[in-house]
Amino acid sequence: MTDTQEFEAFMRNYQNMVFSTALRLVASAAEAEDIAQEVFLRAYERFEELRHSPTAGGWLRKVATNLSLNHLARYRSRWSFFSELFARTEDDQAGPEIEWAAPDTLDEDLSRADRHEVLERLLQQLPAAQRVPLVLYHLENLSYDEIASKLNVSMGKVKTDIHRGRLALRRKLEGRLGSELGVPQANQ
Amino acid sequence: MNPSPNNNLERDIDRALKSLPDLQAPTTLVPGVLARIQSPAPSLAGRQFWQLWPAPVRLVILTMLAGLFVALCWAGRDLFSAIGNSPVAGQVTAWLSGLRVLLNTVGVLLQTCLLLVRSLGWGALYGTFAALALGYAVCVMLGTVYVRLAFARQRI
After folding, report:
1. Of A14, A52, B33, B66, which shows the fewest CB atoms inside 10 Å?
2. Contact A90, A168 (CB under 8 A)
3. Which of B23, B142, B148 to probe the A interface (max A CBs under 10 A)?
């Protein structure tokens, strides 16, 4: 197997993970594909190190995250003021907090794949100011401190944005999926 | 003790998001990367590799460019002195007279503006600038609202 063939197999192995990481941050399939391409070009330069490395996946994920954040900072900062303005207006219209429904109200007809698709779509519809810290916290497992440092904002803002993002996501999910979050409840 | 609603919210959102499988990457991703690996963009050779060129080569190129610049300046000076003694000079002077009229008009306009500011006072000038800035800000905000509305409609 030539180097190129080996690298192609390497890419096919990780392409979904890299693309998903970028897409959940930038919320645009075309931009996520460009970022994923850039990630793999960088991986190609270090393929000698990565090809047998057990941490190759983690390295790719980290590069995808950093490139996505750079992309957002470079091309979208001009809109951030207005995004936050609109996001705040949406939050103000949220109304009182909704109580969690009991597990027996789950809609069994909705398949797991449908739930995932809805959740993915709703996540991408969140304003960037909420989506990005939410994804970094829950999917990239970064701490509040690390997120604040990466986004160059205060820790208080990170916590507020993540909380608002969770509330907005739950509200949207309850609007689409009925009265639950689209995942089975844990054994209690 | 019951967990707080915020903890419940964090736990449930965490579980929901972590349950998401990876999305399917577009089929064009891998071929796109392979194409870029096998045929790097030609513009890179000039744009990015300048710093990678050996220092003597860069020095030679810079010296040649400097020499070319001096030669062009020399040729330009000779050309203008040659034109000065030819019938073309009259034509060039005619073109320049048109330019002079334009410069005079601009000068008159500037003087008029200065007189206007002196008669109205600096407050009027600041007010005009403030109104212009406000108008610009309103245009930007309206543009933003329209863009966001357009994207919102696309999502629906």
Report:
1. A52
2. yes
3. B23
The pLDDT, as a whole number, for residue A66 is 94
The residue in chain A having the minimum alpha-carbon distance to the alpha carbon of residue B18 is: A139
Residue of chain A with shortest Cα separation from B146: A82
Backbone angles phi, psi at A36, to 5 degrees: -60, -40
Question: Can you read off the two tokens belonging to residue B144?
Answer: 């933003």
Cα separation, A48 vs B94, in Å, equals 70
CB-CB: which of A11, A138, A186 is closest to B33? A11
Burial class of residue A22 in the structure, from the number of CB atoms within 10 Å of its CB (0-12 exposed, 13-18 middle, 19+ buried):
buried
Closest Cβ–Cβ partner in A20, A44, A186 for B22:
A20
Taking contacts as CB-CB distances below 8 angstroms, the residues of chain B near A125 are 155
CA distance B88 to B93: 9
Residues 6+ apart with CB under 8 A from A83: A76, A127, A128, A129
pLDDT digits (tens, 9 = 90+) for A73-115: 887 655 554 455 454 444 444 443 333 344 444 454 457 778 8
pLDDT digits (tens, 9 = 90+) for A10-49: 999 999 999 999 999 999 999 999 999 999 999 999 999 8
Which of A82, A110, A134, A173 to probe by mutation at the B interface, max B CB count within 10 Å?
Answer: A82
pTM for this model (two decimals): 0.58
Degrees, nearest 5: CA angle B31-A54-A23: 45
Which phi and psi (to 5°) does residue A139 adopt?
Answer: -100, -35
Query: Is A76 part of the contact surface with chain B (CB cutoff 8 Å)?
Result: no
Contacts with B41 from chain A: Cβ below 8 Å: none
pLDDT beneath 70: ranges in chain B: 1-6, 40-52, 83-89, 151-156
